[in-house]
Specification:
Blueprint lengths: L5 H5 L3 H31 L3 H30 L3 H15 L5 H15 L28 E6 L4 H11 L9 H15 L10 E6 L3 E3 L2 E10 L2 E11 L5 E7 L2 H7 L14 H11 L5 H7 L3 H17 L6 E2 L8 E6 L2 E8 L11 H13 L9 E10 L5 H10 L4 E4 L2 E11 L2 E2 H7 L2 H20 L2 E2 L8 E3 L5 E3 L6 E2 L4 E2 L8 H5 L11 E2 L4 H5 L3 H11 L5 H12 L15 H4 L15
Parallel strand pairs: 18-19
Antiparallel strand pairs: 1-2, 2-4, 3-4, 4-5, 5-6, 7-8, 8-9, 9-12, 10-12, 11-12, 13-15, 14-17, 15-16
Helix pairs in contact: 2-3, 2-4, 2-5, 3-5, 4-5, 6-7, 10-11, 15-18
């Protein structure tokens, strides 16, 4: 009897499949690293537009490489599931010596999901759990530079830092910046001045690049104290670089690495080592957030899923509807003990929502690719997510099956969610205002206006600017999180409301003037943004120019001229130029946070 199987015999061997996937991973890593390495030259040349394009292309490179590997596997004879499982079994050994093998496992998962359409996300098919812990060599940490101070001369220490991290672009005023850095350090640790205090500055070897900034990230170690320390370096219009700020608190560093910001360009041959160090500086952040922040958002998704599974094992609360007003496009639920919301596109939208499922998904892709300027929440997209049925509140499950039946299915003891987005849980702004003190109301309304300004500076018009579509983070920052009406600012036609020509026009219930599909009338904003007259009055006092069409038209003109406006991860008043009067008066953009 002949046991030969011509179909299986025509397939590549398990090892050949595993090597094909690994070759694809190496190809992607090479592309990713090339974009990342170019960040330094782009910063030194003030090539801001090229930097934005490189960020987009680096994100897109992952999907392109996955497509190429999948097409190659299919052309060679697509494996059946049994052969694929054999490839999965031998893959870890091929990755054992890689310094970034956790990323290689995630890449394998991505190929599987593309081949089998995200079905059967279980251990024999892919790496639900890490097969081998990330590799970290023993001995001196190559990630870190240490600057010991034994004689109390912290000024000389700071000067060495500026010399060691010098750019091809010269310092605007090295000695001044060193003095300002020392002053900021002394504010965080007064004992470093006026004595012989010993200690050290410890900084990561790689520089973190994002938008118009370069950041030296590390900590100040004095006695038993460890103070997070980040040096923010900017580029002036005269072709020099200068220290704009030194961040010396965990909160400030957390905002710098926020889920609301674009991914850093930072060289990380051993991503786990870098993430481990960042975890020491930011113990409040989860590992998946840090992988996201340094550009490995696909592995961040893997880490998120593993973290969620572990959390479900260690908790017993139920998934419930997320707090706030129910949306017309998304069904949103959360697990109270886990700071994440799950967003599912509804089957049908009300007539006033002139959009489609495809348009909503395009909007979420836009946000992933675009500069989020600290004002839009990053998301992760999941397909065929399985969650235990007994963890769902019955009323939530009933709601999901009613409004999103195409996306939600009960399969025995599990709930299958065919497609969803995950996002950090925040307090809806409208709910925050109901409980806030007078001082908190003023502060958060200022933040709300700053969020709108900075989104506009990034060429983003939120569309629906209702309070319920913005959230408040634990740091008190206001963030936009409802993307179904988002568009580019330059696609909008901002208009003044025409004066009525007759008493009949003035009294008419409907507009007496024509309104195009892209027309927006900022003078109408107060009427739908605020139901509470006191809140409306206070916001108008702080940010009233947002209701003036000329504010928006002016921003459009600057964007169309190619101006990339400054939106930094700290307030203008915290910059050295504002605090110490250095560098002259800082330039101000209309959209800059105050």
């Amino acid at each position: 009897m002949n046991d030969a199987n011509p179909v299986r015999d025509a397939m590549p061997t398990a090892e050949a499949i595993a090597r094909r996937v690994l070759d694809g991973f190496h190809a992607w890593r090479e592309t990713f690293d090339a974009y990342t390495r170019g960040a330094r030259a782009r910063f030194e040349a003030a090539a801001w537009a090229e930097g934005q394009q490189a960020s987009i292309e680096r994100i897109e490179s992952y999907g392109r490489t996955v497509t190429a590997v999948v097409e190659a596997l299919r052309a060679e004879g697509a494996p059946d599931l049994a052969r694929w499982r054999e490839a999965r079994a031998c893959y870890p050994e091929l990755c054992r010596t890689l310094p970034d093998r956790e990323l290689a496992e995630t890449f394998f998962n991505s190929i599987y999901c593309r081949l089998w359409d995200h079905r059967d996300i279980v251990e024999p098919n892919l790496f639900v759990r890490a097969a081998i812990p990330a590799r970290l060599d023993a001995g001196p940490d190559p990630l870190l530079r240490n600057y010991p101070v034994n004689d109390g001369d912290w000024g000389a220490c700071v000067g060495r830092v500026l010399d060691d991290y010098a750019f091809a672009t010269p310092w605007q005023h090295r000695d001044r910046d060193a003095a300002l850095m020392l002053q900021a350090i002394a504010e965080a640790a007064p004992e470093v001045l006026g004595g012989k205090t010993a200690g050290r500055l410890q900084l990561m070897e790689p520089v973190f690049y994002r938008n118009k900034g370069a950041y030296l990230v590390g900590r100040l170690l004095v006695g038993e104290r460890a103070v997070p320390l980040t040096v923010a370096v900017l580029h002036d219009e005269a072709g020099h670089v200068y220290v704009d700020n030194v961040l010396v608190t965990e909160d400030a560093l957390s905002i710098l690495f926020s889920f609301t910001r674009s991914y850093f360009m930072v060289e990380a041959p051993e991503p786990a080592r870098l993430v481990n160090y960042l975890s020491e500086l930011l113990p409040g952040k989860k590992r998946f957030e840090l992988y996201n922040a340094i550009g490995f958002y696909r592995h961040g998704k893997t880490e998120f899923y593993r973290d969620l599974l572990a959390h479900l094992d260690d908790s017993d609360d139920a998934f419930v509807l997320a707090p706030g007003i129910r949306g017309m496009v998304m069904a949103v639920f959360t697990l109270p003990s886990y700071q994440t919301v799950f967003k599912i596109i509804k089957d049908r939208f009300p007539p006033q929502k002139e959009t489609t499922r495809e348009r909503v998904m395009q909007s979420y892709t836009l946000v992933k690719m675009h500069d989020r300027v600290g004002r839009m929440a990053d998301t992760q997209e999941f397909s065929n997510l399985l969650l235990p049925r007994d963890r769902f509140d019955p009323s939530l499950l009933e709601e999901l099956l009613e409004v999103a039946a195409r996306n939600v299915e009960i399969q025995g003891d599990l709930v299958l969610i065919r497609h969803c987005y995950t996002e950090r849980l925040m307090t809806p702004l409208n709910l925050f205002l109901e409980e806030a003190s007078e001082e908190e109301i003023r502060q958060v309304l200022d933040e709300y206006g700053n969020a709108i300004r900075q989104l506009a500076a990034a060429n983003i018009f939120p569309g629906d600017m209702l309070l319920k579509n913005f959230g408040v983070t634990r740091h008190g920052r206001v963030v936009f999180y409802d993307y179904d009406e988002i568009c580019y600012l330059t696609d909008v036609n901002f208009r003044h409301i025409p004066e009525p020509r007759t008493p009949e026009e003035e009294m008419a219930a409907e507009p007496w003037y024509s309104v195009g599909p892209h027309d927006v009338f900022p003078e109408e904003f107060p009427h739908f943004m605020f139901a509470n007259p006191r809140i409306k009055r206070l916001f108008t006092e702080i940010h009233g120019e947002i209701f003036d069409p000329e504010f928006w038209i002016g921003l459009q003109q600057r964007i169309r001229k190619g101006r990339i406006m400054d939106v930094f991860p700290y307030r203008r008043r915290q910059r050295f130029a504002s605090r110490f009067g250095s560098h002259g008066e800082p330039e101000t953009d209309a959209a800059e946070a105050r």
